[in-house]
Amino acid sequence: MKIRCTDCSKRIGIDDAFAGGVCRCPYCNALVFVPEERQPAEGAEGRAAPMIRPQTPDEMEAVAKARGQETIPIATPVKIQGIVTIVLIGVLALMVLGMAAVLIKSCKRHTRPPEEAVTQGEGATVNPFTMEKSQGSVVAGNVKLDSPIVYVLDGGGSMREVFNFAVAITRLSIRTLRESDQFTVLLCRDKGSGEEGTSRPAQGELFMPGGYLPGKGESESEVKKFLETVTPVGATDTPGALQAAMERKPKTIVLFARKLVDDALEVGAKAKEQGIRIVTVTMDSDESVQKSMAELAKAAGGQSRSYSFSSLQTFRGDSKVPPLD
Predict the structure, then answer these.
(1) Which domain does 21 fall in, by range?
(2) What CA–CA distance (Å, rounded) separates 231 from 189?
(3) Cα separation of the two ends of the chain
(4) Given 3-state DSSP classes, what are the helix, strand and coil percentages for the chain, each rounded to the nearest 5?
(5) E strands of the chain, at which residues?
(6) What pLDDT is attached to residue 111?
């Protein structure tokens, strides 16, 4: 039978034969009275009144002596209570660890600098400012280009913080072009976006003058002059700019942008039908923008690159290319 020690309250087990007698607790060594399994009703006819429950050790020993117990048996521990305790402790520990993990994750999410919160996309480990010239005409480090090429730079306000990075990557890419290559640059702007603080008129898609330029010679200097006065401002029509670029019938379009491209799959499929690859370089954008740009590149048979603002800063600082003046 299973009873509870009156001193330590632990559950213990004792043979039924000792009912009405005394045992010793295996946990605290106290004397414990073993009650009868069934107590007769008080005053029941033909039956003795139930024994008064002994309280003190002396009373316990008197009961044992009256029952002829020469030795007082030691009860056995009830194992289940230990197992339950261990299980409960384990569950509690797991709950504490889970809560700690959630708090740590939450703290990291809220204490990271804004630029670090931007995820790194495809090709994020490739330095876009160090071109592998041994591979021929490339952009964003090692993405191969087929001539003729149209570089499309989003000139809207969303690019204000990263526009100089896009210009630098474009100019460095032009340095890898061969003499037989041809290229041009398209500045993507909204027709209603004039430059702040200037009298410069609002313009839409703005190509460099003169059509395609040769891959060598003074071409890079002309690109510098074309873009150095640009202040990114206003909204832009990226699909419209890509349509204008496709009308030049290039083999490759390189798009630098920081926002979603409307109808990305449709635009990419249209470019592929015309034999045009689109390479996208996403700059300091969230996952939805990265996905849109990657879908555009994939639909057009091209490649995509995605960089956070902090990685662009780091790569530019680590680049062995002399500063672009």
Answers:
(1) 2-77
(2) 11
(3) 94
(4) 35, 15, 45
(5) 2-4, 11-13, 22-24, 31-33, 76-77, 138-139, 143-144, 149-154, 182-188, 206-207, 213-214, 252-257, 277-283, 304-307
(6) 44
Provide the domain count of the chain. 2
Give a yes or no: residue 109 inside a domain. no
- Tell me how far CA of residue 227 lies from CA of 84, 150, 241, in angstroms: 74, 15, 16
CA distances 56 to 6, 60, 256, Å, are: 11, 6, 90
The pLDDT assigned to 112 comes to 39
Q: Indicate whether 156 and 244 sit together in one domain.
A: yes
What's the confidence (pLDDT) of residue 51?
56
The answer to whether residue 44 sits within a structural domain is: yes
Phi-psi group of 211: left, alpha or beta (phi > 0 → left; psi -120 to 50 → alpha; rest → beta): left
Residue 233: what pLDDT? 85
What is this structure's pTM?
Answer: 0.61
Residue 50: predicted pLDDT: 54
Q: What is the dihedral of CA 28, 29, 33, 36, to 10 degrees?
A: 90
The DSSP code for 74 is B
SS3 call for 4: strand
Q: Please state, in angstroms and rounded to a whole number, the distance separating the CA atoms of residues 198 and 206.
A: 18
User: Per residue, what are the HEC states of 155-186?
Assistant: CCHHHCCCHHHHHHHHHHHHCCCCCCCEEEEE
Domain-embedded: residue 107? no
118 and 285 Cβ atoms separated by less than 8 Å: yes
Specify whether the CB–CB gap between 271 and 247 falls below 8 A: no
pLDDT score at 114 = 38
- Alpha carbons 172 and 132: distance in angstroms, whole number: 11
Going by C-alpha positions, the residue among 274, 224, 222 that lies closest to residue 246 is: 274
CA atoms within a 13 Å half-sphere pointing along the CA-CB vector of 64: 18
Positions of the chain with pLDDT under 70: 37-52, 79-85, 105-123, 191-204, 321-323, 325
